[in-house]
Amino acid sequence: MKIYPVILSGGAGTRLWPLSRAALPKQLLPVVADKTMLQDTALRLNGRPGLMQPLIVCGNEHRFLVAEQLREINVKPLGILLEPEGRNTAPAIAAAAHYLKAIDAEAVMLVLPADHVISDTEAFYGAILRAAALVEHGALATFGIVPTAPETGYGYIKGGEPLPVGDNCLKVDRFVEKPDRATAEEFVNAGTYFWNSGMFLFRAGDYLKELQQFQPAIASATAEAVEKGYRDLDFCRLDEAAFAASPSDSIDYAVMEHTRHAVVVPAAIGWNDVGSWSALWEVQQHDSNGNVSRGDVYLDGVKNSLVRAENRCVAVIGLEDVVVVETNDAVLVARKDQVQRVKQVVDHLKCQDRTEHLHHTKVYRPWGCYEGIDVGDRFQVKRITVNPGGKLSLQMHHHRAEHWIVVSGTARVTCGDKVELLTENESTYIPIGMSHRLENPGKLPLHLIEVQSGSYLGEDDIVRFEDVYQRT
Known about the structure:
Blueprint: E1 3-9, H1 37-44, E2 55-59, H2 63-72, E3 79-83, H3 89-103, E4 108-113, E5 117-118, H4 121-135, E6 140-145, E7 156-162, E8 170-176, H5 181-190, E9 193-203, H6 204-214, H7 216-227, E10 230-232, E11 235-237, H8 240-244, H9 251-256, E12 262-267, E13 271-272, H10 277-283, E14 292-294, E15 297-300, E16 306-309, E17 314-317, E18 322-326, E19 331-335, H11 342-351, E20 362-365, E21 368-376, E22 379-386, E23 394-396, E24 400-408, E25 411-415, E26 418-422, E27 427-430, E28 436-439, E29 446-454, E30 463-466
Parallel strand pairs: 1-2, 1-4, 2-3, 3-11, 6-12, 14-16, 15-17, 16-18
Antiparallel strand pairs: 4-9, 5-13, 6-9, 7-8, 7-9, 8-12, 10-11, 18-19, 20-21, 21-22, 22-29, 23-30, 24-27, 24-29, 25-26, 25-28
């Protein structure tokens, strides 16, 4: 049996604001360890017998970050499917199923969210093998996490009658929404309820068959989206109109709650979906006072808390059960039992037309990144890094001029018909309306300071003439 991991890397991760934002969500951040959560997910089962290279499903805005993070860990994906817009998990998985079925008619899909923690990979691989025995008989298997506490932040799966194969696997009796505390305690004491992990194993064809029965509009729209999809560099773009026509629905609501073939594979694998700051505190190593700290942090009389500093020194004194997270442009301070209300902060920022929920001061691009370091009336200053071989688009601006000062590395600058090389401590000027391009022809990163001046400094004041990354 060939098992194809399908890694779902969508979502904005708003519950881990201010670290996680729309342009750089938690799955693309080193939230738990040194590698990003996407990288940990891709490496978790890499090289295991029977498991093929992963298929990634992500949004268009994250495509270059996803590709670069996989390159960093030497994982060559089977493909990267680009969703034109988020339509929840049922359409995303359906698109992956159509894509895989065209490659391998008997393809088995292992559906994995990109932002989960699994500490016992051996036990997880064992659970996959148990599920595979059921999939051979047409089952749609979900992994039910053996609960360790009456958790109210997870949905539950009630196990039904035992199955003759699969080693302690059960038919699914029903799916249960997130319970209150008393109900969660009843579930744990009953011993037949499991946390709903959102991970699945089934044949692509079996999933599509059930989807066609219960949600034919999703099945047909995603089939058309894949059929009309097209290559864009190393990516596969799903057809925009067809995918947008698909109803938005989760796999649980669309298929798993209705199919007669749903089975649950109990799994004690050290799983956590890291859905909040308190959950992140739980999965990390604590000091003798129960604290988790990262960055330039000073603690005095602090207990059972998470304190994270990204840029500055953060000092916390005499507090217990708190979360403190500092970034360059926002600080979160909350009681650990109130962190689910972080989403309200994000909603507030949206209503105020602010940008702190969208991106950090450092913004990543396929050629490198830039970071805003100062802004005022009619001027803006950025720190720009261009990766070796990186090349910005040939472009022009209607409302701003730019001054570039090379800090380190070598820059190839095109300004109108003139092309020149600049090195450390050299600078150039780009007038308003002049076509220009910045490149790094060297083997080391190029660092420079850009000073923009003009009547309008928005990122949308750009006209691209040529772009190696085929952005529009």
